[in-house]
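Record type: monomer structure entry
Structure origin: computed from sequence
Chain ID: A
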Amino acid sequence: MVLQMRQAGLYCPAGDFYIDPWRRVERALITHAHADHARWGHDHYLATPRTVAMLYHRLGEISAQSIAYDHTLTIGGAKVSFHPAGHLPGSAQIRVEVGGEVWVVSGDYKTEHDGAAEAFAPIKCHTFISECTFGLPAFHWQPQAQIFDEINTWWSDCAKDGIIPVLGAYSLGKAQRILAGLNSDIGPIFTHPAVEGTTEILRQSGLNFPTTRPVTKDVDKATLQNAIIIAPPSATASSWVKKLGPISTGFASGWMGIRGIRRRRAADRGFVISDHADWDGLNTAIAETGAETIYVTHGYTEIFAKWLSSQGYDARCLDTEFQGEEDAGEDST
């Protein structure tokens, strides 16, 4: 096998490396910088330049090497390359070739191009390890432009009523996707310091976003006239938000399509927008790989694997410690 499961995670014997390991290892290849895929403590990290920049931001002093998309690197007896996953800026699928056999690890991915992350690129392979966070037919995303129209209309309506809209979006990935789709003609855009810090790192990597300003102690209701605030989901109910005056809370997540989760979040508005592939996206991405063997992980694995088997794939479930959207904490999306 090109890759095998060990206690620390997905391991490549030919190259003596792991992909997104959840225990400390000597060499870790990282698909993206969310906390459930990129953990502290490895001896050496390999990732795309934008992911490496985020790893330094999140993890501090680490030993890391960057690799450009589509560049092939030989590690021991394995050839590896990184390819856009569309999940967030810098996210990658990792292709591993050993003795002519090709496996691809998807990491997290989405197939709709969002204008911020590099567009998903299907990679031909024999075996594809795919996430399936939203691997049910019920999950079907509306076009991104429609969701941004909903968000901007909500913001505009709040501004007319003298209410501050506070939109919960994860600090890395989702927040920047939202920023790229906001209509800054409505008013100023403010961000929670965690969002501001992450966005600045991505700006330094060459990405352009609308002008933002962090919410600090000197920001008051007058300063926030007509503004929108982008903050991590947990911050929308914190004391600093309540001091700003009348607010309306919203959440941006694929799970907002489920009523029970909207109620649990106690949000005024829920916007169904995910940085993971929906049912159609998963099926399309898998078909485009040409792979015969599919491993599915973190999501509705048993249901999705059964469906893939009915479509003629050799489909299997793979137990990992990846968590997917919302369940992975503030660094997820």
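Annotation 1: Residues 144-271 form a domain with the Rossmann fold fold (CATH 3.40.50.10710).
Annotation 2: The mean pLDDT is 93.
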